[in-house]
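Pilot study result, target chain (606 residues):
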Amino acid sequence: MSPASIILFLPLLSAATILLGLKRSPNASAILSTVATALTFALSLGLLFQGHASDGTQLIGSWIRLSDTFSLDIALHLDALSKGMMIVVTSIGLLVHLFSLAYMKDDEGKARYFAGLSLFLFSMTGIVYADNFPMMFIFWELVGLSSFILIGHWYTKNSAAEAAKKAFLTNRIGDFGFMIGILLLWAATKSLTFDGVKAGIAAGSLTGGLLTAATLCIFCGTIGKSAQFPLHVWLPDAMEGPTPVSALIHAATMVAAGVYLMVKVSFLIAASASAGLVVSWIGGITALMAALMATQQNDIKRILAYSTLSQLGYMVMAVGLGAKEASMFHLFTHAFFKALLFLGSGAVIYACHHEQDIWKMGGLKAKMPVTFLTFAIGTAALMAVPFVTSGFYSKEAILEAARHQNILLFVVGAFTAFLTAFYMTRLVVVAFLGQARAHGAEHAHEVPLLMRVPLIVLAVPSLLAGFHFFGGTVLAENMPHHEGSPFGLTFFVSLATLILGVALGWKTYAGQTSDPLAAKPAARLFAHKFYFDEAYAKLITVVQDGLARALQILDGLLIDGLGVRGSASLASGTGHLLRRLQVGNLQGYAFLFGLGVLILVSFALL
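Predicted structure:
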């Protein structure tokens, strides 16, 4: 088998072995899953450093062969983009496994948890290496299934079970549009491979409104998987899963799959300006809206979840603006510093006896110095502190593209950067500084070494991943190259938003024991997430109840009335009439006989 095939199937073998043979051996399950992930990371590094020598398509087998010229294949496509993405997936996957060895050590479902991680890694690898749309769609659905399993890991807790169902069903809405888009592309170009569809577009097989419709249908898959407006509601609730799951699935890999898909099909957006405009504005709206929501969340994981929504909005906006390199660059840097922040929040929650409310923390800087330092590095990267963090370079690339392509989106992106600095300063000040405000924070202590090591490792790319000597190795041609002086308008706008955000966050929350903005109408609106969940619940209730009432009326009139009961009434009435004719009287029978004869004679004569 080729290295790419081993990378794909090794996690599946791990998951199957755990579920079929090691389910009663949680420690062995954890070790097997971790070793399998380490091997996939090592093999991914090997493919990366082979350079273009390992590029190409590797056929695993034909799934469905309709003719000699058309078949649906399981084939792996290796290029700089897919190999770079696999480094992100496997490296963070390995660090999450290591962190989980300590975080989940006493969990009753430990074996099931690690089997879920392996299944997720298999599904994500299939997406990254997919050579054609059907294969990507299959693994796309498998990612949805594995995320459902992991989000609902603590399924006995009602909120976790509901969050898993919400994520699964919301993603299915987007996936339905994705499937329609695939069918439209196939009907127009007669191909299902990415290269074949690209060639068909270049040849003019798909143009105009149909091209825009197909592109936006494909984008529906990204809206669901990357939690873009209006299907963004599932991601914050998915924080009900274990914190390492949040780091792996909902910060670095699964949600990034939607952005990766749009980068893969960027030739569709390049061919349809209308679709690009829609994509960029959906991303911009999501970035701004999620940042506003994050300013008034009190759960440490939910703050980071809305931050993820906002950063994904940046990436989607960049793809829509035609800056796929900047989008992929930010995906790469964001994966590391957001995984660091999520694992750091997991360390805080673990140390505070599973407390997640930041207003019940405080004073953790002195009690957890390593966690605080690494969390501060992740925060600096997310806020895009100039020159010393990876997030600065990737965010600058997106804002620079927006400034040249759409000035309104540039303003949206800059204001979002200000909000990011504000809410992350709020998080650090409230959770780590000041005095302990609850029992859990008072007795907090540094986490075990096995949990600290992934934090320290992730801090390195959070600082260095923006430099060309580091990121360029992984991203290859997907690394944006800047021309001219870095001290342009975009830089000074970014610097101003950073300073203003940090200053306002510090002034508002330093020394506070409760949120001073909580009573303001706008703050309540942000805290309740613009009431999207309530609106959707009402909409579903109205539509569902309305449909149920309509079907009830239809059932009563047509099916029950004219159908079942109508047929029964007709049979009963006919039987009742015939029963009255069978009176058992000889004279009556003679009368009916004579009447029948007269009728027959009348027919004969007429």
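One observation from the pilot: The mean pLDDT is 89. A full batch analysis is planned for the follow-on phase.
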